[in-house]
Amino acid sequence: MKAIAVSKFKDAPEVMELPTPTLRPGTLLIRVAAAGINPYDWKLIDGIMDGHMKHQFPLIMGNDAAGTVEAVGEGVTRFKAGDNVYGQFIHSPIGEGAYAEYAIVPEKALISGTPEKASMLEAAAIPTAGMTAQQLIEKSGLKHEQILLLIGATGGVGSFVTQLATMQGIYVIATVGDEKDVERVTKLGAKETINYKKLSVEQQIKTKYPDGVDGLIDVASNPDAFKTMSGLVKKGGVALTTTFVADDNDLKEKGLTGGNFEMKGTVASLDALTDAVDSGLLHVPVEQVISLDEVPAAIALSRQAKGKGKTVIKIN
């Protein structure tokens, strides 16, 4: 089968011909229809989990995916052949990933039935970005009509945060890089936009909201920029970052809660997103669809944080 893999940590990913995975007890063999690209995928091939989980090489990349169960191993009860499933395919050993025509996934992995009103391409874009956004908003504790400053609104997580926050009546101020972004995030629910390439986000917020905003969700900033952005949040507010650049002492001095945030996925979280998609409340922001052959170039762009919306790989 065709797959995207590396032969050792920090190698450039490449297209390889590899054996189709062999079914084991308690696992599913899934014919992968589509896989979503996330920064965590290339962090794994850089060795972020080395020493924490078993790895195997060639290491097939990929976590988020959607596909159809081809066969089930002994003892599997949740799914049967022919079921359409999606979720996070990551498991031990790392290297049996989703950037492949077939993937083997334990029944106990974070997977569930696909949304009825989403295509396989859309379903593959949901898991990591959708659950991260969902849990960021829950963690923020922001309520109806409170003001959220969202840094990094145009990426996959930001696109979901904008929608899910808007669904709860939270007033979203989104940072954007061009006019096309303005149109896109406004359509997703943002009430205000600030073009960070033309204007100072800091000055714009201080001028319009001298008392500060209620919360900050930042999925893009470096340590210095996050420190500046968190200074725009009023005392008693919340500042969260997914890039692990928060200084807890600095936030404490500012009277803020929050800090570094890591998503912990659950099937319940995934099913809540499924319900939101099927009810028509949540739009899945697939920005680009590529082939397996185009993945190495797309990973290089992801490393440079140049992604907009979600990039999804069409596989089968």
Automatic annotation (TrEMBL):
Coiled coil: none annotated. One of its GO terms (molecular function) is oxidoreductase activity. Residues 11-313 form the Enoyl reductase (ER) domain. SMART domains: PKS_ER. SUPFAM superfamilies: GroES-like, NAD(P)-binding Rossmann-fold domains. It comes from the Bacteria. Pfam families: ADH_N, ADH_zinc_N. This is Zinc-binding dehydrogenase.
